[in-house]
Amino acid sequence: MFGSHLSIAGGMQNALHEAHELGMQTVQVFTKNQQQWRAAPLSAQAVEVWQSECARMGFTQTVSHGSYLINLASPDDALWNKSQELFTEELRRCAALKIPYLVAHPGAHMGSGEEVGLQRIVKALDQVHAALTDESVMTCLESTAGQGSSLGYKLEHLAFVIAQVKQPQRLGVCLDTAHLLAGGYDFRGGTYEKFRREVDQTIGLQRVKVWHLNDSKKDLGSRVDRHEHIGCGFVGVEGFRPIVRDALFANIPKILETPKGKNEQGRLWDAVNLDVLRGLMQ
C-alpha cells in the first residue's frame, strides 16, 4: 500500500485526486496549515467531500501528519500546553475526517535531557487522551534522525512512551527509513532480519502502523535529517527491497516524503519513486 505526502492546496480532496491519478492506495496530508497554531474549523462540506471521495476512490487507510510546531517534550510550560491544545485539535480533525492515523514527532527536550523530555511526552499524551475520549484515531510516534535535541531516534524512546502512557492502545509507531539510518539503525540488505527482530523486541512489530519510505542524503548514524529520492541516497534501492516485500507490512500505508518536482525527463518524482518501489516487489 503505497502513497505520498501530498498538498491540500485548493481543498483537501485535491490530495486524494492526485494520489488516485498516480495509482496510489493511500495518501498523507496535513489537515491544516502546519506552520500556524490556529486553524479554521473544518466545514461540514469539507468533511463530506473528503469522506465521499475517499469512499469513491477506495482510500480506507489515510494518514495525517501533525504540525511541526508541536513539541510535547518542551520544558517550557507555555509551549507545552499550547502543543497539547493543538495536538488535541489535530486528533479531532482526523476523527471528523475519519483519518485513522496521525503521525507525530515525539518532541525535542530542548536541553532538559532525554529522560525529562520523555516524561513530559508521556504526561502530555495522558492529558490529551483524557481531554479527547474518541479513540478512533491512532497516534503514530515517528522514529526521528535525532537531530538537535529530538527524541525518538532510539526505538527505546518510543517503547518507553508507549509503556508509560495510561492508554497505550491509542499509540502506534511510524518508521521512517531516512530517520532510522541517520539515527544509527542499519536495515539494508542482509541486516534487515536483525533490525526486524530489534523492532519486535523493543516496540513490537504489531505497533508499526505506518512507514515513511525515504532515502537519505546522509549516512548511517549521521543524526541529520535529509530526505532523498529512492535509490539516490545512502539507503540505496536494495535497502527498500526487504521492507516492501515484508508480508507483515503489505497492507499498511507506506508513504513517500521525498522531494517534489519533476526529473530531467519531465516525470513527476513521486511517479518515478513509486515505480522504483513497485519494481522491487517483482
Give me the secondary-structure topology:
Elements lengths: L1 E3 L8 H9 L6 E2 L14 H14 L5 E3 L11 H21 L3 E4 L2 E2 L5 H18 L6 E5 L7 E2 L3 H10 L6 E6 H6 L9 H11 L5 E6 L1 E2 L10 E2 L8 H9 L8 E3 L12 H11 L3
Parallel strand pairs: 1-12, 2-3, 3-4, 4-6, 6-8, 8-9, 9-12
Antiparallel strand pairs: 5-7, 10-11
Helix pairs in contact: 1-2, 3-4, 4-5
Task: Tell me about this structure.
By secondary structure, this protein is α/β, with parallel strands linked by helices. The protein has one domain (2-279): Divalent-metal-dependent TIM barrel enzymes (TIM Barrel), CATH 3.20.20. 39% of the residues lie in helices and 14% in strands. It is built from nine helices and twelve strands. The protein has helices spanning 13-21, 44-57, 77-97, 114-131, 155-164, 177-182, 192-202, 237-245, 269-279, and strands spanning 2-4, 28-29, 63-65, 101-104, 107-108, 138-142, 150-151, 171-176, 208-213, 215-216, 227-228, 254-256. The strands form three sheets. Strands 1-12-9-8-6-4-3-2 form an eight-stranded parallel β-sheet. α3 (77-97) links the parallel β3 and β4. α1 runs parallel beside α2 (44-57), α3 crosses α4 (114-131) and α4 packs across α5. The longest helix has 21 residues, at 77-97. The radius of gyration is 18 Å and the shape is globular. The mean pLDDT is 97.
